[in-house]
Amino acid sequence: MRRTARVRSRAPRLFPCAAALVAAAGLSQFAAPAPHRAVAAAVCGGADAAARRPAGSRPGGDPNAVSAGEARAMQADLADRLAELGPAHVPLAAAPTGIPVYVHVIHSGDTGRLDEGVVAAQIDHLNATYGGQGEGNTPTPFHFVLAGTDWTDNAAWYTGMTPGSTAEQAMKSALRKGDQGTLNLYTAHLGESLLGWSAFPDAYRSHPTDDGVVILDDSLPGGPATHYNEGNTATHEIGHWLGLFHTFQGGCLPPGDYVDDTPPERTPAYGCPEGRHSCPGGGLDPIHNFMDYSYDSCMTRFTPGQVQLMSNSWTAYRR
C-alpha cells in the first residue's frame, strides 16, 4: 500500500516518494491491481490490493487509501480465519517459509525488457530485506525462491498498465502461475504515476486470478527511477501481499495500521525527513519502515509486530 506504482519513464525523472492503496470497486482491494474487493483495498479503501505512487503525482489526495472501515473488516476477517484454524494456527513459523516467485517481464520490443541479472538482483534484495538486513530490521520467516521468469512482448500491456485495467486483467489471466502461496511479480511501464500495487491476501479466495504484485520496471535494483531504484518498491508491495497496511493507515487515530510497535503517523513520509513527529505522543514517525513512502535509501526495517502480522496472514490465507 505504501508503494503506489510510480510512473515509469526512460528519461531521468524525479519521483516524489508516495504510495497508495488502490481499491477497485467490486474488484480486488486496491484500485491499483485487480478488479475485486481484495484488490480494491489497494486502490481507494478496498481490502484486496495496495498501490504506491509518488507524491504529487495526482492532485486531490491519495487514491489508494484503505478506509478505516475496510481495514477493520479485513482485520476481523483475519481474526475469524485464525479462530477457525484453531490449533492449526502457528503465530510465527519456526522454520523459514519458502515462497516460489514467478517474474513476468512485460516489455515493448527492447523497452522494458529486463535481463536475468536484474531479476536476480531483485530476488536477492527481497531476501535481504525480509531476512533482517538493514538497520533496526526484524527478520521474517519468508525466503523468496525464483521459480521462473518469462518475457512477454506486448506494447498494449506494457504501456497501458493501470489498476483494474483491461491490460492488467488480460496479463494476469494469461500469465499467472501457482496457488495462493505463489508470488507472481509483474513488471511494466505503469500509468497514473504509480510505482506498484498488490492484492491483499484475503482477496485470493474470491479472485485468485487477481492475486500478485505489479511494479514499475524502472524501480528494480539499478533502474532509472531516481530515489526508487534499490528494489524497495517490491519489498513494500509484497508487504501488502502478506497483509500489511501502510504505516500511516488511520493517521493519528488508533488502531492505525493494526501493529502496536509502529508509531502513529498522520500522513505519508516523503524523502527521508529525520525527526518527523506528526502525531502527539507515540514516538517519531516510522519513516525508515518499508511500509511508509520514503525514498528507497531511507527504508530499512520491518518491526516485530509487522513480522507477526505477516506470519498470521500467511497462516490464514496463503499456507
Automatic annotation (TrEMBL):
UniProt keyword annotations, A-Z: Disulfide bond, Hydrolase, Metal-binding, Metalloprotease, Protease, Signal, Zinc
Family: Belongs to the peptidase M43B family.
Species annotation: Kitasatospora aureofaciens (Streptomyces aureofaciens)
Peptidase M43 pregnancy-associated plasma-A domain ranges (all copies): 226-312
Protein name, as recorded: Zinc metalloprotease
Entries under Gene3D superfamilies matching the protein: Collagenase (Catalytic Domain)
Record carries keyword Signal: yes
Molecular function terms from GO: metal ion binding; metallopeptidase activity
Single Gene Ontology BP annotation: proteolysis
Residue stretches in coiled coil: none
Signal sequence, renumbered to the chain: 1-31
Keyword Phosphoprotein: no
